[in-house]
Specification:
By secondary structure, the chain is an alpha/beta fold. It contains 13 helices and 22 strands. The chain is globular, with a radius of gyration of 24 Å.
Length: about 525
């Protein structure tokens, strides 16, 4: 991951130099945990180890063997970055930068079925729950502390400290204003961030259509690298009619898909929350939406938006045929379902899984995988299955029956927009996209670029501001400031602050002023 460097040999780890990889494969499975704590391998699940090929051959893409006998590929290792290997079912291993793995480490993350960079690993609270005191592996800070107790198998989440030992500092918040109303709403985020957290380092890069106009690409390599080197990325919006004739792979929306894929953010958290003062702004009756609070967890980097083949072809009769492919693997389904179950444990302990298992094989696999994961690891959480079309009806009919809903990329896109209207306006709903523990999160309001009102200064900035609230909570480790900001938004609404989408007359900047006044 960007910003990561290998742990230097002097970092309290001289005793493990004997574990440099020799010319033959090494089986470390019998080496005690205490010896391995700062060694070539840090075992996490009962002292399990990794068998590696010779160090020299790791510069290509050689296979490692995880404790469960699951093969993982270790990507090319060099002095510029770490290799990440992931097996087909999601079990992975990660090696920090250093071609020889000298004073470095490979972690068999059987616990969360993901590879993470190894530096300072912190045990955090569940998504949606309180965060306990951080416990750090002291050996990677030059101390000879004993390793912490092993966590429960498949515990989630684990977070990697953002400041790596000896590594360059990271940008706290990267702003990608984008197109349309994006620059207007992200400008209010910057104002709020400067007041509530003046210590944050903030960077900004062109993205989407404006990046295409300047650089010929909606997402440049430099912008993607900056995103990966940040703790949190907040995007405004992308797209507009002026780019409708751009090549498909150069359109602003392609930049967004590539950003999500490049950052590896696979779990999209979209809260449907109705603030009490806005209960009458919904198109539904007050009694249906008042007190509404449920979370849609949308799988974000798989499914029909990323599947192949995809093409439009001309048929012999002159007609055309279009093909899009819905593809999901066990790993993709399980990792997003795990996020949903963990979220539910910190909320009302109920997960509803939405798919179309009655007519789609991908939906059938989705149901099977979620059911199996529930049986193995989350029997304490109530699980219900629902067909996606019925879910759409139930969201309108009785939305308060839901706590956490997990679904695929396409259905999540549709259902979360339907849920947004329950709250009174698309301008009210934030979202967070999370990936590997410790990796930067991507935060964005779920509204679009709204070209019809762009430049008029009337866009509602609250979805963007609340997206920043989520970033404070999930990526910037400032839940205290997140709570403070959420309450400020709530108080501003209670005092009657409304933009035109909510039936008021405040401008974008005036709504930002109303929130700032409550801080």
């Amino acid at each position: 991951m960007a910003g990561e460097e290998s742990v230097p040999a002097s970092a309290g780890a001289c005793f493990f130099l004997a574990f440099f990889l020799p010319s033959g494969a090494v089986d470390l499975s019998s080496v005690p945990l205490a010896v391995l704590e700062a060694s070539v391998l840090l075992p996490v699940d009962g002292g399990a180890a990794v068998e590696l090929e010779p160090a020299g051959s790791l510069e290509g893409s050689e296979a490692g063997l995880l404790s469960g006998g699951v093969a993982a590929e270790l990507g090319g290792l060099d002095d510029s970055g770490g290799g990440v290997g992931a097996a087909s079912d999601g079990w992975a291993a990660t090696a920090p930068a250093n071609a020889r793995l000298a004073a470095s480490a490979v972690m068999a993350m059987r616990v969360v079925r993901m590879g993470v960079p190894l530096s300072a690993i912190r045990k955090t609270g569940r998504l949606g729950g309180p965060r306990p005191t951080v416990a750090t592996f002291g050996t990677h800070r030059g101390e000879k502390a004993a390793p912490p107790a092993l966590p429960p198998q498949r515990a989630f989440p684990y977070e990697v400290a953002h400041t790596f030992l000896g590594g360059p500092s990271m940008t706290d918040l990267l702003l990608l204003p984008g197109d349309g109303i994006g620059p207007e709403v992200t400008a209010e985020v910057r104002r709020v961030a400067t007041v509530i957290a003046p210590e944050l380092s903030i960077d900004e890069r062109p993205f989407g259509g404006i990046s295409f106009d300047r650089h010929g690409l909606p997402l440049t390599d430099e912008t993607l690298a900056a995103a990966k080197a940040s703790k949190a990325v907040l995007m405004g919006a992308v797209g507009g009619p002026q780019w409708k004739d751009a090549p498909r792979d150069k359109r602003p929306e392609a930049g967004l898909l590539n950003l999500r894929a490049g950052m590896g953010v696979f779990a999209n958290l979209r809260p449907a929350l109705c603030f009490q003062p806005l209960a009458d702004a919904s198109s539904l009756k007050r009694e249906v939406v008042e007190g509404l609070d449920f979370m849609i967890v949308r799988e974000l980097t798989g499914g029909i938006y990323f599947g192949s083949p995809r093409f439009i072809e001309t048929l012999p009769d002159g007609g055309k045929r279009a093909v899009d492919t819905q593809v999901y693997t066990t790993m993709e389904i399980e990792r997003v379902a795990r996020v949903a179950f963990e979220l539910a444990r910190g909320r009302r302990n109920k997960v509803t899984s939405a798919e179309k298992s009655n007519v789609m094989d991908s939906g059938l696999l989705w149901r099977e995988v979620v059911t199996d994961l529930h049986r193995r690891d989350y029997a304490d959480v109530t699980l219900e299955h629902i067909l996606a079309d019925n879910a759409a009806m139930q969201i309108v009919k009785n939305p308060k029956q839901f706590d956490v809903m997990v679904t695929d990329n396409l259905f999540g896109d549709i259902l979360s927009d339907a849920a947004a209207q329950l709250t009174g306006s698309l301008g009210m709903l934030p979202s967070a996209a999370l990936g590997l523990p410790g990796a930067p999160g991507l935060y964005e309001p779920i509204h679009g670029s709204a070209p019809d009102i762009a430049g008029k200064g009337i866009a509602n900035p609250l979805a963007a501001i609340l997206s920043f609230e989520m970033a404070l909570r999930w990526s910037l480790d400032r839940a205290d400031l997140a709570d403070k900001l959420f309450k400020a938004v709530e108080r501003a609404l209670e005092k009657g602050a409304r933009t035109p989408d909510l039936g008021g007359a405040l401008s974008t900047a005036q709504m930002g002023d109303a929130v700032l006044a409550e801080l």
